[in-house]
Each structure stands twice: as structure tokens, then as C-alpha cells.
UniProtKB/TrEMBL annotation:
Membrane association type: Multi-pass membrane protein
Region of interest: Disordered: 721-772
Protein name: Calcium permeable stress-gated cation channel 1
CSC1/OSCA1-like cytosolic domain mapped to chain residues: 199-361
InterPro entries: Csc1-like, CSC1/OSCA1-like_7TM, CSC1/OSCA1-like_cyt, CSC1/OSCA1-like_N
Polar residues composition bias: residue spans: 746-761
CSC1/OSCA1-like 7TM region domain sequence ranges: 372-644
Organism: Hibiscus sabdariffa (roselle)
Domain CSC1/OSCA1-like N-terminal transmembrane intervals: 7-178
Keyword list, A-Z: Calcium, Ion channel, Ion transport, Membrane, Transmembrane, Transmembrane helix, Transport
Listed transmembrane segments: 6-28, 101-120, 157-176, 374-398, 418-445, 466-485, 505-533, 573-603, 652-669
Family: Belongs to the CSC1 (TC 1.A.17) family.
Entry superkingdom: Eukaryota
Location of this chain's protein in the cell: Membrane
């Protein structure tokens, strides 16, 4: 087991490595040729240009102003200067509220840490239970600061129960204040935001088939009848996935062609050659430039054919459409009400903003989504629980005893004091991180298979599953498997009725592992985030080999968005560890505080200067954040109940059960009070915004603004304005009312806008009505 000195050595090494990363970042960010890597957001906004330095050629690439290096930590106060409202205007509400997750961590854990160290640590340390009662159980110096060191049946446990109430009430107080604050920020953001297509648009899915009418005709007939005063226009969804793949393949070919042409321009003596086999490792050797020109022409022909097919083939039109309204109020009414008697038909929901739409999944038939989600739920269950086996095996190996048993010839080296401390402080955390490298990619693939239609919903689903995986495998798996492995000899030798007592003592012992994990994943990971080594290398490679124009350079330096699906579950794991160990092993809390403080400053800098958010959901993820912190509280209550039941304090169980019930009640209260602001758009707010718009711009024509907002981006890429116009014109032609072959005209009580005449089956009174 790791001792306090081992943890101290590991903490020192992690702090040193983080400091080295900060020094490296401070040096690299000051170099002119790295300016686009560390400040890309300002370039993309057009508010920053490449630093120009007069003088020698060296000054154009290297900063020779040595005084600037003395202020290597100046980026920290600069990151904290921007006010929150200015930050929202600069980076969006999603980014600003994401930072509030780190801030809420500090608000919760600073008072908890002070109280725990002032009250619980002295209460735990002044006992001798581990020395007197369980000499045969593995323990460490850190365990003497934990609840395990309090003897069975001691009245001192009431201190832990009281502190559990205090910690829970304080956490709930902070959570309610933050929920209210974020809800108000969201409503203010929506009220003050400029006009956006998604404010007027609803996504309609599962449009019922009609043998007499196309999807476009059915949609327009339905909304002209049922929303006659607010309906404006619509855009049917087409299946252009194959076309998108072809265009993406042509882009890749074009990049390689640019590379070979640039290579040839630098050396005209020899034409570049390549092999046509797998990864260019074998096959016929050909001229690389001619080969790529031929392949690009071939792909261009295929793209043209596929485009024509999408435009003409009715089977390429999916039973879904983006329906736009004349007002936000009209869109809100449609998005938040049931449209037809059949609750599975004509389903409406708020449309994602155009950049948030995940177009590939719009082509998935709605009827198959339930089956897909069931399959992925089963797959995730097996992925989660079968992953415990390798994690437990690696955790057993990544210890001094495990290494000495597996590799006995390394025992003399491992027993060296410093190396032993490094292994105990780093190896378990690094081993666990290694197993989690590919998990986010796997979970995102699963979310895409489920059929979610927006990038934000994909990330939220992936984040939910990542969090559940962390709870089961990283937390429960490490506690149960790790504790059982370490106490195996004790389990074998003692009687069955003593095993629960040993487990109750062994659970807090795993705090040493989580301390090392926080240092490896948290401290060093956050420091590596600011260094941005991977984007730095990739930018310079792209800049050297591929960049030919300023647009190419912008693409090369675009860092992407925050990555909510990976970042938020990691934060929530620290909330879970903090809540669980606050009353059990308070020595862990300062390590969590360092993480939250460091991460807040680093990500504030990154959001201001680096990340370019891919979409804006107006903080729609906050209910998930709130709910996961509540789960952390409940897990802490269950853990404390289990521990105290092994300490001959069964009478405490009703009090802790009551605390859990109060926590659940608090969650239901917040859900009913604040969550509607994140799910629904109040009609009052919509009407106020519409009235304000009509007052400011009474002659604004909304239809041209919304007409092409939800055209598939494949018809917008590469400046194909003619193709976009052709696609929209085709849909517009289909979108008007036409004479129908239906026997019943109850759903179309208006004359055709094409022929101007009415069907014979229409009553005469309908002829006098005009199209809304």
C-alpha cells in the first residue's frame, strides 16, 4: 500500500510535470510561428493577424524578447479578466456554462474541505482501530486519517453522520442556486439572441405515407390545414449519405493531389510516384499527380450522377421535414404539442440549429430507432460489465506485489525507494487511463447508431454512458476489485461472518488509488491540455505539406470544439469521488480542489483563445450535470450506510436513509421547477421576442431567410450555388399544393396553387377561400 511519503513523492512529481508543461506552453505560445495554434479563435473571428517582426529572418520565427519570458504565467490572470457576459458573447452560452461546472466544484468542495479537515480528520486520526483490531489487513498511513481508524460502535461516528447532513445540505443549496442562475442565463440568452433559423423551425418525423401524394405535398397540406396562420415553408429531408461519402472521398483525393503538386513544385527534377495498393505499400507504381487527377475526375462524375439521383428519385426523400413558421410562437406551439391522433405519427420536436444537425441520421427510418436503441442498450450493458475483468486484472498487476509476482527479476529494482514511490503513485492511474483511451470513440459510434439527429444530443448521450461506465468500472470496479485483490489472504483465513467487516474497512483504503488517479488524469492531464502538443504537431505538418491558400490555413488551425462527451463525464467522476470520500477519507479532497482550480483557469483560457464551438444548444446539457451530482450524493449516502453497518452502528441507517430520501425529493423539486426552461420554450417569451422583432424590422421578409437554411450541406459545399438553387427550386416546386388523387379532400380544403382550380370533390365553399 502507498504511504503518505509515497503519495507525497507522486504529488511532487505530478506538480513538477505540470509545471514543466506550463513552462513549455509559455515558451511555445510566444513564438510567432505558433501564434495560430494557441490563439486560433481570434484568427477565425478575423480579430488577429500573424505577428510581424522586423529585423533578421530569425525574429520572424523566434521571439527574442527575453523580458516576455519572465511573465510566463501572465496568461492565468488574463484568462480570468473577461467578465461572464462578455464571455457568453465571445464564446457562446454552452462554453460559459461548461466553465460553471468547474466553478460549482470549487463552490461545493472548498467549504467541505475546510470542515472535513477541521473536524473529521482529527476525529479519525486520534483513534487506533487499525492498529489494534485488524493487524492482518493491509493498510497505510493515509488510512489512519479515514473512517476506518474509528473503532466499532464508537460515538464518534455521529460526527460523520452530522457532517454528511451538512455536506448534503450545502451541496443542495449550491446546486439550487446554480440551477436557477443557469436557467435565467438560458432564458436571457434566448431573449437577447439574434434571429436564428432554429427559433422558427420544427423537425417533423414519421410523416405517414400516402400513395397519392409525395412527402412534401403531405407535409404542406397538413400544416396549411392545422397551422393555417403560422405555417411558412418547409424543407423535406433527403438521403444524401452516399453523396456525402463521395464528396468526402474527393476532398481527401484533392488534399493528396495538392500535396504531390506542392512536392513537385519544390523539386521539378522527378515526378512523384506512388503505388496503387493498400496504403501505398504495394501494387502498380504510377505517376501520383496523374493518378489523383484521374481519380478526382472519376469521382466528380460519380458525384454528378448521385446528385441527379437524389434530385429525381422519390425514394431519396425521407418521411421527415424541417417545417418553418412565420413566428417563434407558431413554432413553439407546433414543437410542444401532439399533431395527430396517432402519437407515433407526425412527431414534432425543436429543430437543431443548422450547424448542429447530424445529417446522416436523418436518413434512418424512425420505426427502426427503438430497435437500434434497444440493441445499443444491451451492447452497452455487456461492454460495461465485461470491461471489469481487464480493469481488475490490470489493477492487480499495477501494484508492487503484482509486479514482483509477474516479473520477479525486477524485484531489486522495484524495491528502490524512489522507484517504488513512482510506481505506486503513477502506475495504477496510467494503467486505468490506458484502458479508457478508445472508450469515448466507441460510445460515440454507439450513439450515432441509435439515430440521434443532432451533434449536441449525440454528445449528451455519449456523455451519459461515459459517466455510467465511470461509475461502474472506474469507481465501483476499482473499489471492489482492488480491495478484494488486496485483502484476498484475509478473506480466505477468516470466518464468513467477518468478511463484511473487512470489506467495510477495505473500501476507504482504495482512496490511495484514487489520489494517484486524480494526479495522473487530473493534474497532468489538464497541464497537457494547455500545451496542445497534438494540435501543434498536426498544424505544422499540414502547414508544410498541404496549405496553399489562407482558407487551407484556417482549416489547418481549426481546433474544433470542447468535446462535451469526454470532458463532462471526467468532471463528474471527481464530483463522485469528492462526495463519497468527504466523510470517509477527507485527505482526498485537497487533490480534487487543485484539479477544479487548475482546470477552471486552463479551460477558461482555452475557451477564450482556442476552441471554436461547433454548435450552440443554450446550455441544454445542464439538467444532466445537475442530475449526476445528485447521483454522486446518493452514492455517498449508500456508501456511508454500508460502512457504518460494519461498524456496529445499525441505528444510524434510518437517519442516512432519510437523508437519501430528502436528496431525491430535492432532485424532483428542481426537476419540476427549473428543467422546463431547458426542454420547452415559454409561449410568453416567444410572443415577446416576435413582437420586438416586428417592431424593429416591420418589413423583414422571413421566407428567403428560412428557405434554404436546412438544405443538406452537401449542396452548399464547394461553392455549388447552382446545385443548391436547383435543389431548393425542386423542393419548392414540390412544396406547393397540387391537384391530388385522394378520394377525400378533408385534409386539403384549399384550391391548388399550381392550377388555380379546385378538385371536383371539394365543396363549393372552399373555392372562395384563399391560400393562407
Amino acid at each position: 500500500m502507498a504511504t503518505l511519503s509515497d503519495i507525497g513523492v507522486a504529488a511532487g512529481i505530478n506538480l513538477l510535470s505540470a509545471f514543466i508543461f506550463f513552462i513549455a506552453f509559455a515558451i511555445l505560445r510566444l513564438q510567432p510561428f505558433n501564434d495560430r495554434v494557441y490563439f486560433p479563435k481570434w484568427y477565425l473571428k478575423g480579430l488577429r493577424s500573424s505577428p510581424s517582426r522586423s529585423g533578421s529572418h530569425v525574429k520572424k520565427f523566434v521571439n527574442l524578447d527575453f523580458r516576455s519570458y519572465l511573465r510566463f504565467l501572465s496568461w492565468m490572470p488574463e484568462a480570468l479578466k473577461m467578465p461572464e457576459l462578455e464571455l457568453i458573447d465571445h464564446a457562446g452560452l454552452d462554453s460559459a456554462v461548461y466553465l460553471r461546472i468547474y466553478l460549482i466544484g470549487l463552490k461545493i468542495f472548498v467549504p467541505i474541505t475546510l470542515l472535513a479537515w477541521a473536524i473529521l480528520v482529527p476525529v479519525n486520526y486520534t483513534n487506533k482501530a487499525l492498529e489494534l483490531q485488524l493487524r492482518n489487513v493491509t493498510s497505510s498511513d493515509i488510512d489512519k486519517l479515514s473512517i476506518s481508524n474509528v473503532p466499532d460502535g464508537s460515538d464518534r461516528f455521529w460526527t460523520h453522520i452530522v457532517m454528511a447532513y451538512v455536506f448534503t445540505f450545502w451541496t443542495c443549496f449550491v446546486l439550487r442556486k446554480e440551477y436557477e442562475k443557469v436557467a435565467n442565463l438560458r432564458l436571457q440568452f434566448l431573449a437577447s439572441e439574434k434571429r436564428r433559423p432554429d427559433q422558427f423551425t420544427v423537425l417533423v418525423r414519421n410523416v405517414p405515407p400516402d400513395i397519392d401524394e409525395s412527402v412534401s405535398e403531405s407535409v404542406e397540406h397538413f400544416f396549411l390545414v392545422n397551422h393555417p396562420n403560422t405555417y411558412l415553408t418547409h424543407q423535406v429531408v433527403c438521403n444524401a449519405n452516399k453523396l456525402a461519402k463521395l464528396v468526402e472521398k474527393r476532398k481527401s483525393m484533392q488534399n493528396w493531389l495538392d500535396y504531390y503538386q506542392l512536392k513537385y513544385s519544390r523539386n521539378n527534377a522527378n515526378r512523384p510516384l506512388m503505388k496503387t495498393g493498400f496504403l501505398g505499400l504495394w501494387g502498380k507504381q504510377v505517376d501520383a499527380i496523374d493518378h489523383h487527377i484521374f481519380e478526382i475526375e472519376k469521382l466528380s462524375n460519380e458525384i454528378a450522377e448521385e446528385r441527379e439521383r437524389v434530385l429525381k428519385d422519390p425514394k431519396a426523400i425521407m418521411p421527415a421535414a424541417f417545417v418553418s413558421f412565420k413566428s417563434r410562437w407558431g413554432a413553439a406551439v407546433c414543437a410542444q404539442t401532439q399533431q395527430v391522433r396517432n402519437p407515433t405519427s407526425m412527431l414534432t420536436e425543436w429543430a437543431p440549429e443548422p450547424r448542429d444537425v447530424y445529417w446522416q441520421n436523418l436518413a434512418i427510418p424512425y420505426v427502426s430507432i427503438s430497435v437500434r436503441r434497444l440493441i445499443m442498450a444491451v451492447a452497452f450493458f455487456f461492454l460495461t460489465f465485461f470491461f471489469i475483468i481487464p480493469i481488475a486484472s490490470v489493477q492487480a498487476l499495477a501494484t508492487i506485489e503484482g509486479l514482483e509476482k509477474a516479473l520477479p527479476f525486477l524485484e531489486p529494482l522495484i524495491e528502490i525507494g524512489f522507484i517504488k514511490s513512482v510506481i505506486q503513485g503513477f502506475l495504477p492511474g496510467i494503467a486505468l487511463k490506458f484502458f479508457l483511451i478508445f472508450l469515448p470513440t466507441i460510445l460515440m459510434i454507439m450513439s450515432k447508431f441509435e439515430g440521434f439527429t443532432s451533434i449536441s444530443s449525440l454528445e449528451r448521450r455519449s456523455a451519459t454512458r461515459y459517466y455510467l461506465f465511470n461509475v461502474v468500472n472506474v469507481f465501483l470496479g476499482s473499489v471492489i476489485a482492488g480491495s478484494a485483490m488486496e485483502q484476498l489472504n484475509t478473506f480466505i483465513k477468516q470466518s464468513a461472518n467477518e468478511i463484511p467487516k473487512t470489506i467495510g474497512v477495505a473500501v476507504p483504503i482504495r482512496a490511495t488509488f484514487f489520489i494517484t488517479y486524480i494526479m495522473v488524469d487530473g493534474w497532468a492531464g489538464i497541464a497537457a491540455e494547455i500545451l496542445m502538443l497534438k494540435p501543434l504537431i498536426f498544424y505544422h505538418l499540414k502547414n508544410f505539406f498541404l496549405v496553399k491558400t489562407e482558407k487551407d490555413r484556417e482549416k489547418a488551425m481549426d481546433p474544433g470544439s470542447l468535446g462535451f462527451n469526454t470532458g463532462e463525464p471526467r468532471i463528474q467522476l471527481y464530483f463522485l469521488l469528492g462526495m463519497v470520500y468527504a466523510t470517509v477519507t477527507p485527505v482526498l479532497l485537497p487533490f480534487i480542489l487543485v484539479f477544479f482550480g487548475l482546470a477552471y483557469v486552463v479551460f477558461r483560457h482555452q475557451i477564450i483563445n482556442v476552441y471554436n464551438q461547433e454548435y450552440e444548444s443554450a446550455a441544454a446539457f445542464w439538467p444532466d450535470v445537475h442530475g449526476r451530482i445528485i447521483i454522486a450524493l446518493l452514492v455517498s449516502h449508500v456508501t456511508l450506510i454500508g460502512l457504518l453497518s460494519t461498524k456496529h452502528l445499525a441505528q444510524s441507517a434510518p437517519l442516512l436513509v432519510a437523508l437519501a430520501v430528502l436528496t431525491i425529493w430535492f432532485y424532483t423539486f428542481c426537476k419540476a421547477r427549473y428543467e422546463p426552461a431547458f426542454v420547452k420554450y415559454p409561449l410568453q417569451e416567444a410572443m415577446m421576442k416576435d413582437t420586438l422583432d416586428r417592431t424593429r424590422e416591420p418589413n423583414f421578409n422571413l421566407k428567403p431567410y428560412l428557405q434554404n437554411a436546412y438544405v443538406h450541406p452537401i449542396f452548399k459545399d464547394n461553392g455549388d450555388d447552382d446545385e443548391e438553387e436547383k435543389f431548393s427550386t425542386k423542393l419548392e416546386d414540390e412544396s406547393v399544393l397540387v391537384p391530388t388523387k385522394r378520394q377525400s379532400r378533408r385534409n386539403t380544403p384549399v384550391p391548388s396553387k399550381i392550377s388555380g382550380a379546385s378538385s371536383p370533390s371539394l365543396p363549393e365553399v372552399v373555392l372562395e377561400r384563399s391560400v393562407p
